């Protein structure tokens, strides 16, 4: 990889890690389903006009929209809205990689091997350590909800292989088109005061939405998968290990969240475990959680 491409990979990972900050700001004003419905609606409006209808893939797009769009993002943002701190959300989202390996071994009989099994064990052990910390002891339900979102991402990461011949931005656009109505319905059923919240929204919130849509979703995925197409996967994917590092750094600066020794040890173990899995099987492409 050239220095330029290395810098682009770092910038994308930094943008995805920083995305937890504007997401938290948005959740302070909007409910999770309203926020996500706005996000996916705008992504669909921007991307769908540029890509043809995925012929013969509508059913798969609908399934993906339910699993990745509604369940994964709904549970991850729902956990934050229920009171889970951002740092714990960053770490719990890393479980998507070991969950993906575990589901792959169950559904496709993929052989895990010694190293990937070790990586799964270490990452799950790290989350168990975090789960015993005082911050999580009072928020077990939100933490489990966020972990459920990581499980949904793990399945979605397997399911998305059905679209290997399609541009990733096309998949993102059409998935968003089908995800948005689901989230609008959930917002209507479970949230109140949406119109008032939109009317009283200040500029920081609107800029946060622009960041999550344009920088994190569209530009992030566009640059990332252009790098994946240009270079070997083994050269690009390891950079994704920096996402939780950037995420924890930005959230600590923005919200001054206390990082206890127990949390740091557990978070480090989780990231190491995920690193073992990724580095031992770099050929597997996956959709980042941003």
Structural write-up:
With 290 residues, this protein is mainly α. The protein has one domain (3-280). Helix content is 77%, strand content 0%. The chain has 15 helices and no strands. It has helices at residues 3-18, 20-27, 32-47, 58-81, 86-93, 96-107, 113-131, 134-137, 140-159, 168-190, 194-199, 203-230, 233-236, 242-255, 261-280. The longest helix has 28 residues, at 203-230. The protein is globular.
Task: Kindly summarize this structure in a few lines.
The protein is mostly helical.
Number of helices: 15
What's the N-to-C terminus distance?
23 Å
Strand content: under 5%
Order of helices and strands: HHHHHHHHHHHHHHH
Q: What is the gyration radius calculated from CA atoms? A: 18 Å
Low-confidence stretches: none
Task: Give the overall shape.
Answer: globular
Mean pLDDT: 89
Oligomer: single chain
Structural class: mainly alpha
Count of spatially separate domains:
1
Q: Bin the helical content.
A: over 70%
User: Biggest sheet, open or closed, and with what strands and sense?
Assistant: none
Please tally the β strands and state the result: 0
Topology:
Elements: H1 3-18, H2 20-27, H3 32-47, H4 58-81, H5 86-93, H6 96-107, H7 113-131, H8 134-137, H9 140-159, H10 168-190, H11 194-199, H12 203-230, H13 233-236, H14 242-255, H15 261-280
Helix pairs in contact: 1-12, 1-14, 2-12, 3-4, 3-10, 3-12, 4-9, 4-10, 5-9, 5-14, 6-7, 6-9, 7-15
């Amino acid at each position: 990889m050239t220095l330029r491409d290395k810098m682009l990979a770092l910038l994308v990972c930094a943008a995805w890690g920083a995305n937890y900050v504007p997401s938290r700001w948005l959740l302070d004003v909007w409910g999770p389903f309203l926020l996500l419905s706005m996000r996916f609606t705008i992504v669909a409006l921007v991307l769908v006009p540029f890509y043809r209808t995925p012929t013969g893939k509508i059913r798969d797009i609908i399934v993906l929209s339910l699993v990745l769009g509604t369940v994964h993002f709904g549970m991850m943002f729902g956990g934050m809205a229920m009171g889970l701190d951002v740092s714990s959300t960053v770490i719990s989202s890393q479980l998507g990689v070991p969950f993906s390996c575990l589901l792959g071994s169950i559904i496709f009989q993929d052989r895990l091997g010694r190293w990937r099994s070790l990586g799964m064990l270490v990452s799950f052990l790290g989350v168990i350590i975090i789960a015993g910390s005082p911050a999580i002891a009072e928020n077990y339900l939100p933490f489990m909800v966020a972990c459920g979102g990581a499980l949904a991402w793990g399945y979605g990461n397997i399911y998305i292989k059905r679209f290997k011949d399609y541009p990733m931005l096309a998949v993102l656009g059409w998935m968003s088109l089908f995800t948005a109505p689901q989230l609008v319905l959930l917002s209507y059923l479970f949230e109140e005061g949406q119109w008032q919240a939109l009317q009283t929204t200040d500029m920081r919130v609107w800029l946060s939405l622009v960041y999550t849509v344009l920088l994190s979703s569209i530009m992030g995925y566009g640059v990332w998968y252009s790098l994946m197409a240009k270079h070997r996967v083994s050269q690009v994917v390891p950079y994704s290990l920096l996402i939780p590092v950037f995420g924890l750094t930005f959230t600590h600066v923005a919200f001054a969240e206390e990082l206890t020794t127990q949390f740091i040890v557990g978070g480090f173990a989780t990231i190491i475990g995920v690193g073992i899995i990724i580095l031992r099987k770099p050929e597997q492409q996956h959709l980042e959680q941003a």
